[in-house]
User: Fold this.
Amino acid sequence: MKKINGVKNFTALISALLLAISFSSIAEESAMSSSENKSNTELALELEQLKSQVLKLNRELFILEEDLLFPASTQLAVFVSVDTGKFFAIDSVEVKINDKEVAGFLYTERQRKALEQGGIQKLYLGNLKMGEYQLTAIFTGLDPEGRTVKRAASYDFEKDDEALMIELKVVDNTNSYRSQVVVEEWVL
Assistant:
């Protein structure tokens, strides 16, 4: 409850600062008409400092909201990466947790190439209670001959009170000339 009140107070503070910025142009005009007020450069400097403070407060508010929406004790993140894509050109992915679809993605040519060049995509971010779960990932793509192929992996895991990060890697296997999906838990 304290965090929620803190976010409300924080939001009110940011609103007040944004209102102050909007009225700064009025203050700037009145400052020009009065010789006793600060010079334009000093006022502009103060305005820039105020803007940077608002941006900093907005960033802190975003972090607070993330903590409230996705607390570390329930957080699960799923990432996708591709080895080289020599034996499998990824087209789409579907992720299920306990047979309930939680994420899916259809890749463009540009996104596929980014993954093949070492990129990592955050596919899913959500909350899970403590307990045992089964993650199923189904990748659809093309083999070197242009045929549609599916690759799947199933991974049993236990969610405890820590954040859990899981990476789904599409890896080329040079022995079988096929790709396979490897699931790895990141150690934080």
In short: The chain has two domains: 2-69, 75-186. The first helix runs from residue 2 to 33. Strands lie at 75-82, 89-97, 100-106, 120-127, 131-142, 148-159, 164-173, 178-186.
